[in-house]
Amino acid sequence: MTKLSEIDFETALDRVESEPHSSAASILRCAETLFSTKGFKAVTTRDIAKASGKNISTIHFHWQSKQSLYEAVCRMHARQLLAFVSQTEAAIANSTLEPTQALEQWIDKTLDLLIENPAIAKLASQNISVQNNPEMVTLFEHDIQVLARFQGYLSTFLGPTDDHTKPLRLFTLLYFTIGMFTDSSLQQATLGGSIYEQPELQQQLKSFAKSFAMGLLQKESALTPNL
Amino acid sequence: MTKLSEIDFETALDRVESEPHSSAASILRCAETLFSTKGFKAVTTRDIAKASGKNISTIHFHWQSKQSLYEAVCRMHARQLLAFVSQTEAAIANSTLEPTQALEQWIDKTLDLLIENPAIAKLASQNISVQNNPEMVTLFEHDIQVLARFQGYLSTFLGPTDDHTKPLRLFTLLYFTIGMFTDSSLQQATLGGSIYEQPELQQQLKSFAKSFAMGLLQKESALTPNL
Prior knowledge:
The structure is a homodimer.
Chain A: H1 9-18, H2 23-38, H3 45-52, H4 56-63, H5 66-93, H6 99-116, H7 118-129, H8 137-155, H9 166-182, H10 185-191, H11 199-218
Helix pairs in contact in A: 2-3, 2-5, 2-7, 5-6, 5-8, 6-11, 7-9, 9-11
């Protein structure tokens, strides 16, 4: 197996951000779509070559292997999420919002981020379900970093710090969010469509998620009567 | 790809149940453990042969292919879950329990079932995260069947049928349960251990899950003050 640490991911991702029309960036975006819809193992480097219109050798030149390309996509998501928390946190801190309004706005923005980037929840879901897989070990470190950052912000809204259900409440929120935005065929069949495609369903989920998260974090009712 | 419909799964699984020491049964149990810990794609027929101490040809004789072996494991879980709901429902119907007590007992028994069978949530988690994979299409039908059965029972505890959050509340419960019992390394690192191995953590989760599910189903507070 290729060592995942051979690429300088941070430099490579900086370049992708500053040169979004480069070959490296276009390969990364195709890989992101394929991995998130088909799953890491089902995608071949050949599939990525075909989807991006590049040679396999170009893919290897920029991203070495399928494994490191997968890691690059996950690291890109980690960067997006960390930047998102910092920006949103700063914007809210500079506003005149009450704590409850601030939390509500934060949740709203998080849901929009996930709706606009379907690959985030889908890959997170894959990482959680096969995390014992040795190939996934390095990803686990970014997940911890992102989770800690989210926890740090959300913890300010939680009750007393000695409450031992605190991590369980945060994981409940995490699994709820990842699950719903994984948008599985089972969910689509039951809810009557994809939450990425049906605006009405999206609004229902957003409104439900907001009340649910507020309740879970603030230890009030998880479901307010107006749902 | 091998057609998944070539095996008469129901007959094969009846035989596994009546002959738990047969080769077919032992192969199935090894496959269950490997698939649930490493993920479908990372396991080879050779791995299953090694773990069960059988020849590859014996595996093919009993279960045809890795794909049909995976389907057999998922079907076995679907059978276990369907049998569990029927038995528990009947036992509760024949008791003198109040609706709230009945629901609490049902949740308690469900959590015990999942704790005793770690592969159930782990495979469900894999199926949800890669459900668009064509190999997984037939599994989807058992999942729908199991979900419908669980929903049927739980719906009796839910509020008015015209409440459009009903499916969202049930999926919240599903994702919470599958997520926690997938017991990812991320969760283990944050909660301080595996919920399958740490009795204290297990008790905390059970108590949290009970209050959470009661709140979500009965539309009361998802987290009671005694948590």
